[in-house]
Design goal:
The complex is a heterodimer of chains A (834) and B (659). With 834 residues, chain A is an alpha/beta fold. Chain A has 3 domains: 7-216 and 361-422, FAD/NAD(P)-binding domain (3-Layer(bba) Sandwich), CATH 3.50.50.60; 222-358, FAD/NAD(P)-binding domain (3-Layer(bba) Sandwich); 549-589 and 607-748 and 785-823, Alpha-Beta Barrel (TIM Barrel). Helix content of chain A is 32%, strand content 16%. Chain A has 28 helices and 32 strands. In chain A, strand 30 and strand 31 form a beta hairpin. In chain A, helix 2 crosses helix 6 (93-104). Chain B is of the alpha/beta class and 659 residues long. Chain B has 2 domains: 2-210, Pectate Lyase C-like (3 Solenoid), CATH 2.160.20.60; 293-605, TIM Barrel. Chain B has an 11-stranded mixed sheet, covered by helices on one side. In chain B, strands 16-26-25-23-22-19-18-17 form an 8-stranded parallel sheet. Chain B has a two-stranded antiparallel sheet with strand order 12-24. Classes of the chains: A alpha/beta (834), B alpha/beta (659).
Chain lengths: 834, 659
């Protein structure tokens, strides 16, 4: 795991970037931070799991104009940074990128951007740094002219990386994508600086110049005899192979060096005709080797021998004379220095030595202008600018050998400072890599914790090595999904309001520093002191979420909710009564399809619940919502309070419980009327919308209706004379339990019952689709009632009760003032009585 | 054989000390004038014989290992409580819960025995020569009960495993118990046992075992990673995606859902409270740790050796079971490196944990899983678990995937059950029982180490008064936000009060009874850093306890899927392959650095507030930022207040670093 401090902990002011680090629900993941261009890997991985390949490609391509190239040959610093690297194995971030590009890469490009600026820019060198800078500047509306010395764009990707790792078409795909996205980029090939065009001309024609000239000249080993004809430099060797040559090799080839060029050179040599043995001679040990581990592994699998701790000292006839080394003290860069072992000289026989010991930039023209500093263009990394204020530098040619993605990072960085320069901003805020998120939901793959890393199919040399067939292929869709599921999604907000993604990262940060790192301690302390926004601001509407139950502990005997029983019998009706085996009544299915009716009819009957509606839904207990005529089949009748009060109740059919449906507006009148008429129950509709569900689905109910009703009855001292039944916004059995504790004898569920059968909410009404079998529907409706009933009894037992009817307001506390007010329940912990 | 005349001892502690002395000399003891006193012989771990001439009270021979007790007449309840090896033989009748929590050994009651005999026993044999009252073998996990006479109703109620043999009539069976035929060898083994104790029986037995219908949840909940917490009824639509998912899943499984971690919804918390004075002058150049006392002693109220903490921080109780062995080792090591205490949680003490931790609290839960006298005697404090903030009112929960053979062995339970620990202690039905239980525990450790109580916050104002009057040395009080390895989401979100409400009620309750400041309050539930810790201390706590934050410091990614048992970082798992992913050395060090950062923060804030001791910070130093926090705590409401420390200028370049 990379120990990193996330940008939330940084006090650096954010420059004007397309950046999401101010979002409190987002922290850039370690992979994203490790990427020099801040690739939003978690988002594209999340999209891959969802099968949203276009969105994935947008996320990739937004900061990476060489997406297809990177999908194959990026050195992928994201992967060692991946938090899962410490567990089983890092997510295959690079190959997932390749997967997306292969799914829909060639045709895809971001929408074209127009040229909107007068000023133009010259970019010298069309490698990753130059193309990236051109891309950013073009996106900003500038016309950009790329002057490329060779006959195609791509730089080292074209000339340095062998085709078996990076087929030519892949490079062209990226170039085409950039040019289609940025029509303002004009390309002039075969135009070398100092030959076809001069710096002065560029300065004259354009308003700023970027030198991204690359480093194409191999460094020498600096040992006697290396001028011999059988010594060649690594980049030179790769360039001629990539230009199409397939020279015959001697039997034994030695490659000197331990970087990626050495890896490519040895694998190229291994494929050429005539060769029998290829060895890599490296002066440090395996641990000190800078080459990407996968490349090293590939080389070894292809039969290349790595000779560690061996330093060439002289090229002699037919051999390379070397000494053995031991690892000494660490250098300034932290790597241990190789120390020669006295008397260990020995000769390694060979027919060719390829010296892959680094490369440098060369440019006569710039040399003459005094812009060069030995092996590179002299430039200040802070502003990417040379001694000439209108000339900037980026890439290997400016800052020494780097990877493709680092060079692209330079390109972004240079473009940022060039834009500032072009806009006349002489003192721009310091650049930092921007981090974006597409806020992709975390995947819900049941195997995410368990799936091992899916390995790419590795083909190695293939049947005909000299044809340079690709060494590996990407994932199938199934493999890609399995791999994408593994992502921890370090970027995503957690499910916990306490341990949010930002507080998790703060805790990580605290656990990665020592007390001696005072600056970091202070910085984290400052972050930790930040206050959160009041989660219950002024417009907060009280919901049942704002109430909590008080558990039994010492002052009440604890009941065992796992084992001990709880009575749920909840008959309603003060004078005439209707049996209810559980305190739940279902409503809102009047207009549902027959299949839904029959499922719920069966479940309601089995559970001993009831249905409330204008029509019965089958052979169940039914509380008729009165719509003009009493139905003889009904077990109880409920009248809308306003109608009943206005028109009176005519008792046609005797001996059945009757009640009213009241809302917050008429509840007090309804109580008076109900008591006067000796009604049996009062349905308290917190949504003010019965008998339909649209009001319930529209938003939170008004839970104060229960408190109002109980208060009124208490004032009249007639609490026992009418039963209260609550409806509105009940989403769990716990919600039901809370309503019961507040005074309801039973509760009514509407939207929840519909949602359990997979109803979609469309224009405020549940819409049932037919993709469930009738058995599924029956099981689901029965399960919902069972779960809700079990949950409400669990709450009762937690409070020390063995009968749901024994829950009372005293078992509740409020955690918000609005809920305390609405429900008439004290705040938890407060001495104040509300 | 020496004689101890109990009438000569005004308290049982001195007598037990004497018995232990004889035990060390391998000298058997005869006790005269026992006067039915409680806790006779408790804590004896030497293989001597103790003959009691007369009757004994509660917990006779309880919490012992290897000793032989012979009681001439009757015993009170919980005879032979939790013995490991050894015997307790009662000549007369026994009260309720004889042989409760047996881990082995043999308990023989020649007369009748009371209700719930052998409750939660795991191994060994409990034998009754007469009749057994109701619920014999209640929730037993293993071992054997032999009843020569009749058994009253609900035999084997909610047993998980083990065998009950009844020679007489069975009134009826309990939940999830069934009658099976005797196995070959059963009868011979019983006869051999009866012969050894000279018990006569002619006839045969009815065998009762677990019917296996309730050991596992019937349906498996589909695994779901949590939706972001901000999807709730405040900020999203009332019927948001999270609600819809929840209802859909309940439609599938027909029961409450389960997950790890604590309450996920926002509740009033310490970040709604700020420091009254500016602390912005904390400077990187000042050495925060100099000249600020953080040392904290917990639990010396009655002369036990207190926990001596280098700062007012403990590691919260978390079990080996919920967490992997490797994590428990790392936590123990981190506690030692930072001079604080570690806690076993439910499920027993690991040898490695004991070796790594300098100060270790041993927690006793209702199921007595992994509980035993030997580990008590090597603990630095004992804690009775009543409940926890994540699931107050319910016992611990461990899903089957985590109940591996290794784990089952240490807990003494069957492999592969969905373990739902009892919600209630077999021998604590009220505050008065609790007092006697506390005496037993203190006897077992010769009153040498502090005794605490762990409670999830509910009716704190009442509960805290009982805890004080019952005489606990310290209380670990756990708010609604407290986390767990597995609990019902409904309970996680809806049962218990927020941590700041809990401390406020505790302080108010103790003030109402004019309690001295001698029962230490340890607050937990959402303590994430030194800032939270200082605020909690200012509100009246003596110490805080940190669980989830420590686990995160040690590599937890907060996916909240602890209950699944496939933790991808090797923390909340018993899967060896997954556990192998956990790097103990590195993560112990990470946790250690996290605690040191907490220390740094506490010291820096204390200093900035102008004190030289963190315990001097008080309510006067706080203001409330929200109306809720102000109402709960009674602190002044100051919504505009902002806490900041200003990093030195040279820090402005400190950047995030991809290393």
């Amino acid at each position: 795991m990379t120990d990193f401090l996330n940008p939330h902990l940084s006090v650096t002011a954010t420059p004007d970037l397309d950046d999401d680090t101010k979002d409190i629900h987002y922290v850039p993941a370690p992979c994203q931070v490790a990427c020099p261009i801040g690739t939003d890997a978690p988002s594209y991985i999340g999209y891959i799991w969802e099968g949203e390949y276009e969105k994935a490609l947008e996320a990739i391509n937004a900061t990476n104009p060489m997406s297809a190239i990177c999908g194959r040959v990026c050195d992928a610093p994201c992967e060692p940074a991946c938090r899962r690297a410490d567990s089983d194995s890092a997510i295959a971030i690079r190959n997932l990128k390749r997967f997306v590009l292969e799914e829909l890469g060639p045709g895809f490009h971001l929408p074209p951007v127009k040229v909107t600026r007068q000023k133009t820019v010259a970019v010298v060198g069309g490698g990753p740094a130059g193309v990236t800078a051109a891309h950013d500047l073009a996106e900003a509306g500038y016309e950009v002219h790329i002057y490329e010395a060779s006959d195609r764009l791509g730089g080292m990707c074209v000339w340095g990386i062998p085709r078996f790792r990076l087929p030519e078409g892949v490079i062209q795909q990226d170039i085409d994508r950039v040019l289609n996205h940025c029509p303002g980029i004009k390309v002039q090939l075969n135009t070398a600086l100092g030959e076809q065009i001069s710096l002065d001309e560029l300065k004259q024609k354009h308003d700023a110049v970027l030198l991204s000239i690359g480093a194409f000249v191999g460094k020498t080993m600096g040992i006697p005899g290396e001028a011999a004809p059988y010594v060649e430099d690594g980049v030179g060797f790769l360039r001629r192979i990539n230009a199409g040559e397939r020279p015959a090799m001697p039997k034994t080839v030695l490659v000197v060096g331990g970087g990626d060029v050495a890896m490519d050179a040895c694998r190229v040599a291994k494929r050429l005709p005539g060769v029998e043995q290829v060895k890599v001679v490296y002066r440090r040990d395996a641990e000190g080797m800078p080459a990407r581990k996968e490349e090293l592994q590939g080389a070894i699998e292809e039969g290349i021998e790595i000779v560690y701790n061996t330093q060439p000292v002289e090229v002699v006839d037919g051999a390379l004379r070397c000494v053995r080394t031991e690892m000494g003290e660490a250098d300034e860069d932290g790597r241990r220095r190789p120390v020669s072992v006295a008397g260990s000289e020995h000769d390694l026989e060979c027919g060719l030595v390829i010296a892959a010991v680094g490369q440098k930039a060369e440019c006569q023209e710039l040399e003459e202008k005094g812009l060069m500093d030995w092996d590179r263009v002299r430039a200040d990394f802070n502003g990417m600018v040379t001694a000439d204020p209108m000339v900037f530098a980026a890439g290997d040619g400016g800052f020494g050998g780097s990877t493709i993605v680092e060079a692209m990072g330079h390109g972004h960085r240079a473009a940022y400072y060039m834009k500032a320069y072009l806009e006349g901003n002489q003192n721009p805020l310091a650049y930092r890599t921007p981090y974006r998120t597409r806020r992709v939901p975390v995947c819900n793959d049941p195997m995410w914790e368990i799936n091992p890393r899916v390995h790419q199919n590795f083909h190695g040399l293939g049947k005909k090595p000299a044809e340079f067939a690709e060494i590996e292929s990407t994932y199938s869709r199934e493999e890609a999904v399995a791999e994408a599921a593994r992502c921890f999604r370090c970027d995503a907000e957690t499910g916990s309001a306490d341990y949010t993604v930002t507080s998790r990262e703060s805790i990580f940060a605290m656990s990665r520093i020592t007390p001696q790192q005072k600056a970091e301690q202070i910085q984290i302390l400052d972050t930790r002191l930040e206050h959160r926004e009041n989660p219950f601001g002024e417009d907060h509407q009280a919901t049942l979420d704002d109430l909590v139950f008080l558990p039994a502990n010492l002052s009440r005997l604890v009941i065992d909710p796992y084992r001990e029983g709880c009575k749920t019998r909840s008959d309603i009706g003060a004078i005439h009564s209707m049996e209810l085996d559980i305190p739940f009544i279902v409503t809102g299915l009047d207009h549902a399809p027959d299949e839904v009716h029959s499922a719920y009819a069966k479940s309601i009957r089995q559970a001993g619940a009831a249905y409330l509606g204008t029509h019965p839904i089958g052979d169940t207990r039914w509380i008729q919502v009165f719509d003009g005529e009493e139905n003889g089949e009904a077990d109880a009748v409920a009248f809308l309070a306003d109608d009943a009060i206005a028109h009176g109740i005519h008792r046609i059919l005797a001996k059945r419980p009757r009640g009213l449906i009241a809302n917050t507006g008429n509840v007090e009148k309804a109580i008076e009327f109900g008591l006067e008429e000796e009604l049996d129950f009062l349905i308290l509709d917190g949504t003010n919308g019965l008998p339909g569900l649209s009001a319930e689905l529209a938003g939170p109910p008004d839970i104060s209706i229960l408190h109002k009703a109980v208060t009124k009855l208490r004032q009249l001292n007639r609490e026992e004379e009418i039963d209260l039944v609550y409806f509105g916004g009940l989403r769990t059995g716990t919600d039901g339990a809370k309503a019961m504790a507040l005074g309801a004898r039973a509760v009514i569920i509407g939207a929840s019952a519909a949602l359990a059968l997979g109803a979609d909410i469309s224009q405020g009404e549940p819409v049932f689709s037919s993709d469930l079998s009738s058995q599924d529907r029956e099981e689901r409706s029965a399960n919902l009632l069972q779960a809700f009933n079990a949950e409400s009894s669990m709450m009762a037992r937690c409070t020390g009760k063995t009968n749901v009817q024994n829950m009372e307001p005293e078992d509740l506390r409020a955690i918000t003032l609005t809920a305390s007010q609405a429900a008439g329940v004290p705040m938890a912990g407060s001495l104040n009585q509300h | 054989m020496v004689t101890i005349d109990l009438s000569q001892f005004s308290n049982i502690t001195e007598a037990n000390e004497k018995i232990r002395e004889y035990g060390r000399d391998n000298q058997s003891v005869e006790i005269i004038n026992p006067d039915a006193r409680h806790n006779i012989g408790v804590g004896l771990v030497d293989p001597i014989t103790v003959k009691i001439k007369g009757s004994a009270g509660y917990f006779c021979g309880g919490l012992t290992d290897g000793a032989h007790f012979e009681i001439e007449n009757n015993v009170g309840w919980a005879a032979g409580d939790n013995i490991y090896t050894g015997t307790v033989v009662v000549g007369g009748n026994a009260g309720a819960i004889a042989g409760v929590g047996l881990r082995g050994g043999e308990v023989v009651i020649r007369g009748n025995m009371g209700s719930r005999a052998g409750q939660i026993m795991k191994e060994g044999t409990l034998c009754c020569g007469g009749n057994a009252a109701f619920m014999a073998g209640y929730m037993m996990y293993g071992g054997r009960i032999i009843i020569l006479g009749d058994a009253a109703e609900k035999v084997g109620q909610d047993m998980s495993a083990g065998e009950i043999f009844v020679g007489g009539q069975i009134e009826n069976l309990g939940n999830d118990a069934e009658i099976v035929d005797l196995a070959p060898g059963d009868l011979d083994s019983i006869k051999e046992f009866l012969h050894r104790y000279d018990l006569k029986f002619e006839g045969t037995f009815t065998k009762v075992v677990n019917a296996g219908k309730k050991l596992r949840y019937k349906s498996q909940e589909p695994r779901h990673r949590p939706q972001p917490f901000f999807i709730h009824s405040k900020s999203s639509s009332y019927w948001n995606a999270k609600v819809q998912e929840d209802i859909w899943i309940k439609g599938e499984v027909g029961r409450y859902r389960i997950r790890g971690y604590g309450a996920s919804k926002p509740v009033p918390h310490l970040n709604d409270i700020a420091f009254a004075k500016s602390i912005s002058h904390v400077k990187a150049s000042s050495s925060a740790l100099d000249g600020v006392n953080l040392r904290t002693q917990i639990g010396g109220r009655y002369g036990a050796k207190p926990l001596d903490l280098s700062m007012p921080v403990m590691i919260a109780p978390m079990s080996f079971g919920a967490l992997s062995r490797s994590v428990k080792i790392a936590l123990a090591r981190a506690s030692r490196l930072s001079g604080i205490s570690e806690n076993t949680g439910e499920g027993g003490m690991l040898d490695e944990q004991r070796e790594e931790a300098d100060q270790l609290i041993f927690q006793m839960l209702s199921g007595r899983l992994g509980w035993n006298v030997k580990d008590m005697q090597r603990a630095d404090a004992i804690e009775i678990y009543i409940s926890q903030g994540a699931k107050p009112g319910l016992g611990g929960q461990l899903m089957a995937k985590k109940v591996t053979p290794e784990l089952a062995a240490i807990r003494g339970i069957p492999v592969g059950i969905d373990l739902r620990s009892p919600s209630r202690h077999p021998d604590v039905l009220g505050a008065d029982d609790l007092v006697i239980k506390m005496d037993e525990l203190r006897e077992a450790v010769a009153h040498k180490v502090p005794l605490g109580i762990k409670m999830g916050a509910g009716r704190v104002k009442d509960d805290i008064k009982i805890a004080y009057k019952d005489g606990f040395d310290f209380v670990e009080l756990d708010g609604l936000q407290g986390s767990t390895g597995a609990a019902s989401t409904e309970v996680l979100e809806n049962v218990g009060i927020p941590t700041i409400s809990a401390i406020q009620e505790a302080v108010d309750g103790l003030r109402e009874i004019n309690a001295a400041d001698d029962m230490h309050l340890v607050l937990m539930g959402g303590i994430k850093d030194g800032v939270d810790a200082v605020k909690m201390l200012a509100l009246g706590a003596h110490c805080v306890s940190v669980g989830t934050a420590a686990i995160i410091a040690g590599g937890c990614i907060a996916c909240m899927q602890c209950h699944v048992g496939s933790c991808p970082v090797g923390i909340a798992t018993q899967d060896k392959e997954h556990e192998a992913r956990y790097d103990i050395d590195r993560q112990a060090n990470n946790m250690h650095r996290f605690f040191e950062s907490m220390r740094w923060q506490m010291a820096a804030i204390t200093k900035a507030l102008g004190y030289d001791d963190v315990h001097k910070v008080s309510r006067e130093d706080l203001v409330a930022l929200t109306p809720e926090a102000a109402d709960i705590t009674g602190l002044p409401y100051a919504p505009q207040h902002q806490d900041h420390v200003h990093p030195d200028d040279d820090l402005s370049t400190l950047s995030r670093k991809a290393g």
